[in-house]
Specification:
single chain; TIM Barrel; 8-stranded parallel beta barrel; 3-stranded antiparallel β-sheet; 12 helices; binds flavin mononucleotide
């Protein structure tokens, strides 16, 4: 069925087809129809960060930026759903066109630039959703907030989403907001993490619940830089790391139509880079912090590779665009078939 839907969706511009997908998934979710359209994945619950995930395959951030289709995506079989990136104030993002499909490479290039309706809209959507499972809310900064003041935007978003999120993801790795990725390194990272941790403590007292904090990182880091990030996350008492966001590299898409568009590249070409980051993180972290792996899962077996590399959970974006909901089931099956750890 998705093959047919894909043929129709791929005739539209990527952004129109994106909007239509959100509308359809959202409408199906409100009517409770999505579960009828696709076979549910096997039950494979995972306990992590004090949360119970229905299965280890989640929706990655950026597809449902405003939380408009939470119930719909959950009904398609995702074991958890991450919405956002959301910023304190609404913003339009970069000029269009800013989203490109590269089907020969099972890839996407985007320079959306955190287009979103702002944190208050997102919270209204979360409150309207019926979904009871694990909901991640991914937070970022407005494009016109100077990077030296980025921490203010993250804290503002954290304050607002805290009571409504199962976990919060701090996105310091989008390539489309100038300066954002500099927050992944050195003192900028340490200061940001310290501010987040202190606020998390205050909010834990205020709300009587501790909401885990995950940091989402880029794939474009050396092994030394990755190890440094891992150490900083442990030192700061963060709860998880999400690896990875899109890449600035263009390996695998050179010479293809849209291959040299500016922005972040996702899908099959980022797979190995992303899995390598997971391996480096896993070696350094040695289980002290869980890893959520994302990047280039286009077949079930790639999800298995991410878990074998040291991740506890995976997320999917581009693979879902190319393969539809069947990929969720395939990924769950591949993970279920792995030898048990420990
Ligand atoms: C069009 C598009 C928009 C994205 N927007 C976000 C975002 O707002 N926040 C974020 O953390 N990641 C965002 N991502 C990155 C994905 O969540 C994911 O980390 C990346 O695409 C790699 O996974 P994939 O190969 O399965 O797509 C976006 C990706 C795409 C393709």
């Amino acid at each position: 069925m998705y093959t047919l839907a894909r043929q129709l969706l791929f005739k539209l511009s990527p952004e129109t087809s994106h909007e239509l997908t959100i509308d359809l998934v959202g409408a199906g979710g409100r009517l409770g129809l999505n579960g009828l359209l696709c076979k549910a994945p096997a039950s494979l619950p995972v306990k992590l960060m004090g949360l119970e995930f229905a299965n280890p395959v989640g929706l990655a951030a950026g597809l449902d930026k405003n939380g408009d289709a939470i119930d719909g995506f959950a009904q398609l079989g995702f074991g958890f759903v991450e919405i956002g990136t959301v910023t304190p104030r609404p913003q339009p993002g970069n000029p269009k066109p800013r989203l490109f499909r590269l089907p020969e490479a099972e890839a996407i290039i985007n320079r959306m630039g955190f287009n979103n309706l702002g944190v208050d809209h997102l919270l209204a959507r979360v409150q309207a959703a019926k979904y009871q499972g694990v909901l991640g809310i991914n937070i970022g900064k407005n494009f016109d907030t100077p990077v030296e003041r980025a921490v203010d935007d993250y804290l503002l978003c954290l304050d607002k989403v805290y009571a409504h999120a199962s976990y919060v993801t701090v996105n310091v790795s989008s390539p489309n907001t100038p300066g954002l990725r500099s927050l992944q390194f050195g003192d900028s990272l340490k200061q940001l993490l310290e501010a987040l941790r202190l606020r998390q403590e205050d909010l834990t007292r205020e709300h009587g619940k501790r909401v885990p904090l995950a940091i989402k990182i880029a794939p474009d880091m050396s092994d030394e830089e990755t190890v440094e990030v891992a150490r900083a996350l442990v030192e700061a008492g963060m709860d998880a790391v999400i690896a990875t966001n899109t890449t600035l590299g263009r390996e695998g898409v050179q010479g293809l139509e849209f291959g040299d568009e500016a922005g972040g590249l996702s899908g099959a070409p980022v797979r190995d880079k992303s899995t390598h980051i997971v391996e480096v993180l896993a070696a350094e972290l040695a289980g002290r912090l869980p890893i959520i792996a994302v990047g280039g899962i286009t077949e079930g077996k790639h999800a298995g590779e991410k878990i074998a590399a040291g991740a506890s959970l995976v997320q999917i974006y581009s693979g879902f665009i190319y393969r539809g909901p069947a990929l969720i089931r395939e990924a769950v099956d591949a993970i279920a078939g792995l030898p048990r750890k420990g």
